[in-house]
Amino acid sequence: MAMTGVLRPGHAQVRVLELDKAVTFYRDVLGLVETGRDDQGRVYFKCWDERDHNSYILRESDQAGIDFFGFKVLDEATLDQLEKDLNAYGIETRRLPAGDLLETGERVRFTLPSGHEIELYATKTAVGNGIPAVNPGPWCADSERGIAPVRLDHTLLYGPNIAEVKKIFEDVLGFYLVERVLGEDGESEAAIWLSCSHKVHDIAFAEYPEPGKLHHCSFLMESWERVLRAGDIMSMHQVPVDIGPTRHGVTRGCTIYAWDPSGNRFETFMGGYQPYPDYEPLTWTFDNFGQGLDYPQRKLHETFLTVVS
User: Fold this and answer.
1) What residue ranges do the domains of the chain occupy?
2) Which residues are catalytic, by number?
3) Does the predicted TM-score (pTM) go above 0.90?
4) pLDDT digits (tens, 9 = 90+) for 33-83
5) I need a surface site. Which of 32, 110, 255, 308 has the fewest CB within 10 A?
6) Peptide bond before 245: cis, by omega within 30 degrees of 0?
């Protein structure tokens, strides 16, 4: 499929309670690569196989959660057009100047009806992945430190009004619905999985009464064996695990959910099928959501529905 608009998830800024403790966790346990710090005290990371300067940003706060989630778009003309489209749809946008985030160009930010801050941007400094561009090897030294995910893959956000959120992503940003879970009434959508590519999802939302909540940011692993290795590393470092290792029915992905030291949930994820925009969305009924979440146990874990940051 031709990718000409929104390309992929680009970055997340997450709030943590103790910055030094969080930096140690994300660098040494999760195995992200630290790429910079700014005069606001934020710390920047990337996954080892990502080419751009940063994808995961930590900010110290008295409350855990997410500040914003950003998507990279094709170019500056696309950024301008998407801002116009958002404004025409009735959504107010704000321009943030180049350099407000390290090595990142101008960003267009807007607030979803779910209370989440979303950003679009076109430029971020390319720093490479530690592998030569000519005659490259399959991995580099950073790929073996800690859990060492390949990339920031997606996020799941909890908040109200996801029917309106869905319209914005489909009608304005060019995403398409891949899967959904119906509510207990059998008609409304309790959760939706959306893609701007041929990944099984790039962002997901679940209906929740409180606005602006983070369920998890997900990091891609190369194989099921690497997910299991991530579980070993979590146990070695006494990381609190929420769910897994297991397979989802929704997306068919294999997963472990766990919490960082501040209580932000993260996911180590692999697999899933490759959808295209002409595929019919898959539907799960609410009474079978347990199998959608944890296919082997067919269990709707209570924490999945209630614990957010």
Assistant:
1) 6-126, 151-306
2) 154, 201, 216, 248, 257, 267
3) yes
4) 999 999 999 999 999 999 999 999 999 999 999 999 999 999 999 999 999
5) 110
6) yes
